[in-house]
Amino acid sequence: MAERFELLIRNGSVVTPEGVQRVDLGVAAGRIVRVAAAITDSAAEEIDATGLHVFPGILDAHVHFNEPGRTEWEGLTSGPAALAAGGGTWFCDMPLNSNPPVIDAANFAAKRRLAEQKSVVDFSLWGGLVPGNLDQLAGLRDAGAIGLKAFMCGSGIEEFPGVTDAATLRAGMKRAAALGMLVAVHAEDDAMANTLTAAARAGGATDPRAWLATRPVEVELAAIRTATDLAGETGCALHIVHVSSPEGIALITAAKKRGVDVTAETCPHYLLLNEEDVVRQGAVAKCTPPLRPGAARTGLWRAAEAGQIDTIGSDHSPAPPAMKTAADFFAIWGGISGCQHGFPLLLSEAVARDAGALPRLAGLLAANVARRFKLAHKGRLAEGYDADFALLELGRAQPLDNGELLYRHRQGPYHGRSSTVRVRRTVVRGRTVYSEGRIASGTARGSFIQPQN
Ligand SMILES: [Zn+2]
After folding, report:
1. Distance CA 110, CA 21 (A)
2. How far apart, in whole angstroms, are the C-alpha atoms of residue 415 and residue 345?
3. Distance from the CA of 313 to the center of ligand 1, in angstroms?
4. How far is the CA of 52 from the centre of ligand 1 (A)?
């Protein structure tokens, strides 16, 4: 006789945005079909989660896996594997670092095919909004793009130019709104950053502190003002990625109060590191917007705890070691590798600040992401949802080690940091994809997830 459940998870502490409950989960056909105390049925596979937390699979809407075209930077095999090791079960890849960039439906389809062949976790894809591709946006929507990503400053990638003037961004948002698409922006003011950079370079600056001074918080705030104003004017849904400052969150909160459809993402690195890490650690801690002073980090935690931040994404953005070493700090490629260590360390710090933090994090890392990006059946440990979860061990402090990273390049800013949270196992639609330091062999391929309107 066939088992009623293909998988049972027993005795775990199950985390939802509403709280932590000791319940069992019954899974059939990849979905959670029963949530109840002490399920007595048998199942084809049973996991005893005694002493462990069952956390919703982390939904990382912000990664740069760089394939096709720059697979030597990361790739659709290693990137998703590392994310799974960090408790992730879904990602949405950014359109710019792959080559060709995803600015039309054909390039979208090509990346989707590759990810379907290679990824161990489920995925969606961003399309790009660049000057001159308005006529491609409908095709990107029909191909299933989660939304459109635009840079308000240079992206660093020649084939993916920034939308650096308000008129072009307005036109893009207008079209996106008509198509029912969300626009995500990298919010840094191009003119301001360029002026400050040119002045520093003219003075011969090459060091990390001088570089930090070229991207003060006002560069971010100016762009957030422009973007939220344009979203209000055009009616476009707006998502500001990687907000680095509490002042930025305050501008977004004010825009929400004016009725603008805007959400704020921050990243683990803005909550775990500060600008002194840029000076001390150098290239592995270089990103834009840059890491901020310690007071800003504390302010971001408070904003998250006050419910003013909507989502947290890794902005995992690696590059080959050769691009991360130069005497001139300005010349080093920016981007922090963080999709594996960033999430467990974030959970560890959150619990240290507030023992009851896990439900809030289940919202920021999963439920809120699914809601904003219209991922049906994702983001919650509840009946009718995909059986996507991570088994977390809490309590025992252990140092993180870059040697355990599954990235193509084992670099990252968290080496040696003590974490009380470890990911023991990650399950996608009922199948174990990661367990005890290894990717499961013969793992089923990840599925492409299209937003549901
Ligand atoms: Zn990014």
Report:
1. 42
2. 11
3. 9
4. 32
Distance of CA 241 from the midpoint of ligand 1 (Å): 8
Half-sphere exposure of 197 (CA within 13 A, CB side): 13
Distance between CA 292 and CA 298 in Å, rounded? 10
Tokens of 228: 């939220």
DSSP state of 178: H
Ligand 1 centroid to residue 185 C-alpha, Å: 10
What distances in angstroms separate CA 247 from CA 150, 218, 267, 305, one per listed residue?
A: 21, 9, 15, 15
C-alpha torsion sign, points 256, 269, 376, 77: positive
Alpha-carbon Rg for the chain in angstroms: 21
Burial of residue 382 (CB within 10 Å: 0-12, 13-18, 19+) is middle
List of long-range contacts for 144-147, beta carbons under 8 Å, 24+ apart: 144/108, 144/112, 144/448, 144/450, 144/451, 145/102, 145/108, 145/181, 146/61, 146/92, 146/182, 146/373, 146/451, 147/176, 147/181, 147/182, 147/183, 147/184, 147/237, 147/239, 147/373, 147/451
- Amino acid present at 413: P
CATH code, residues 5-54+385-401+416-437: 2.30.40.10
Predicted confidence pLDDT, tens digits, the chain (453 residues): 456 899 999 999 999 999 999 999 999 999 999 999 999 999 999 999 999 999 999 999 999 999 999 999 999 999 999 999 999 999 999 999 999 999 999 999 999 999 999 999 999 999 999 999 999 999 999 999 999 999 999 999 999 999 999 999 999 999 999 999 999 999 999 999 999 999 999 999 999 999 999 999 999 999 999 999 999 999 999 999 999 999 999 999 999 999 999 999 999 999 999 999 999 999 999 999 999 999 999 999 999 999 999 999 999 999 999 999 999 999 999 999 999 999 999 999 999 999 999 999 999 999 999 999 999 999 999 999 999 999 999 999 999 999 999 999 999 999 999 999 999 999 999 999 999 999 998 776 899 999 997
Report how far residue 78's alpha carbon sits from residue 412's, in angstroms, rounded to the nearest whole number.
15
C-alpha of residue 60 to centroid of ligand 1, in Å: 11
- Ligand 1 center–CA 160 separation, angstroms: 13
Pairing of strands 24-28, 5-10: antiparallel
How many A from CA of 149 to the centre of ligand 1?
10
The ranges assigned to domains in the chain are 5-54+385-401+416-437, 57-372
CATH assignment of 57-372, among 3.30.56.70, 3.30.200.20, 3.20.20.140, 3.40.50.360? 3.20.20.140
Written as six digits, the tokens of 308 are 């003013």
